[in-house]
Design a protein that fits this description.
Strand order of the largest sheet: 6-5-4-3-7-10-9-8
CATH architecture of the largest domain: 3-Layer(aba) Sandwich
Number of helices: 12
Largest sheet: 8 strands, mixed
Distance between the termini: 112 Å
CATH superfamily of the largest domain: Class II aldolase/adducin N-terminal domain
Structural class: alpha+beta
CATH topology of the largest domain: L-fuculose-1-phosphate Aldolase
Order of helices and strands: EHHEHHHEEEEHEHHEHEEHHH
Strand content: 5-15%
């Protein structure tokens, strides 16, 4: 009778340095065991892809002022190679989902106080290799790498300078999201939980791509937004976690914009969540450290979508205005009372 191997069995064999091929030859593998074998094979391939002669990460933090030898050593380290692999992986995902075309799009990861690894210029995001990546300082000067850094790196660096939490950035041109950017519209809110929790979207005015002006206009918005629609251009996102999280924001935004457009074609008004329901999501968002300009707003202000629902306005007046009206009413009542008392005398 054949043995049945589970994921735990596979992990035990790996831990002991056993032969997985021999162990699995006549065994029945559970789905989780197959996944464990596949993951182990992928890990081995990643390790074998690291060029010989690479070193581990440096013992002290790097900056643009570090010596050329230190910067080169880091750039050729196994730690940097792993990040380069991540950039290639995200590039393939962007290309596979048609979020980029030609050599469009760019990605960056902060690796020091004022340095970042970024994608190269004039290379399709779907076909990048680790050796294509570049090391730059926060002024855009290239510190290492054979290929030239992306021409739009200044925007990524402005985001990282303006938003200290940003550890990774991703820019691309997903068609549905870019449609909103061309229209200059922020997608309506209060419809999909994932969008409300993980994305905070704003629109930046158009400027020539790659210019300092473009970077500064985008950076002006990153204090309270993690995903910026770039008018007549595309989208850029940042993450306080990692580069995959920055990419996830693209997937979430693009799926949401597509859903909104499909909903608009159904001929009936979209059903939105209630303000209290949105408040619950915003509490989750705040606990995750994700910015949103709606934190602290009144419930009736949370789902205002003027472009999509004209005439909808907050029905509850601000407290200051309400207090002012109450005081005026009291003065009027007192004046009338005083007048009546005077006449009675």
């Amino acid at each position: 009778m054949s043995n049945v191997l589970t994921a735990k069995d596979i992990e035990a064999i790996i831990a002991k340095g056993g032969d997985l091929t021999a162990a699995a030859k006549d065994a029945i593998l559970t789905p989780s065991a197959r996944d464990a074998i596949r993951d182990h094979a992928h890990a081995q391939r990643r390790e074998s892809s690291i060029p010989s002669g690479t070193t581990s990460a440096p013992g002290k933090p790097l900056t643009s002022k570090s010596s050329k030898a230190e910067l080169e050593a880091y750039f050729n380290s196994s730690a940097a190679h792993a990040l380069k692999e991540q950039l290639c992986d995200i590039g393939r995902r962007l290309w596979g989902r048609a979020y980029v075309d030609g050599n469009g799009g760019n990605i960056a990861i902060k690796v020091g106080e004022d340095i970042a690894i970024c994608t190269p210029t004039l290379v399709s995001k779907g076909f990048m290799k680790p050796e294509d990546m570049c090391l730059v300082d926060f002024e855009g000067n290239q510190l290492a790498g054979v290929k030239r850094r992306t021409s739009e790196i200044l925007m990524h660096l402005e985001i990282m300078k303006r938003q200290p939490k940003a550890v990774a950035t991703c820019h691309c041109h997903p068609p549905y999201s870019t449609g909103f950017a061309v229209a200059g519209l922020v997608p309506p809110t209060c419809m999909i939980p994932e969008y409300e929790v993980f994305a905070s979207v704003a629109v930046a005015p158009y400027r020539t791509p790659g210019t300092p002006e473009m970077g500064k206009l985008v950076a002006d918005l990153v204090d309270k937004h993690n995903t910026i629609l770039m008018a007549n251009h595309g989208v850029v996102s940042w993450s306080h976690n990692n580069v995959e999280d920055a990419y996830f924001k693209m997937e979430i935004l693009e799926a949401y914009c597509r859903t909104i457009l499909v909903t608009a074609q159904l001929g009936i008004p979209a059903k939105t969540m209630t303000a209290p329901q949105l408040q619950d999501l915003l509490k989750i968002k705040q606990s995750l450290g994700i910015p949103d300009p709606r934190h602290g707003l009144k419930e009736c202000e949370l789902c205002d979508n003027a472009e999509w629902r004209p005439g909808v306005a907050c029905a509850v007046p601000p407290k200051a205005e309400s207090a002012s009206l109450d005081a005026e009413a009291e003065r009027l009542v007192q004046a009338i009372t005083d007048q009546m008392m005077a006449q009675a005398k």
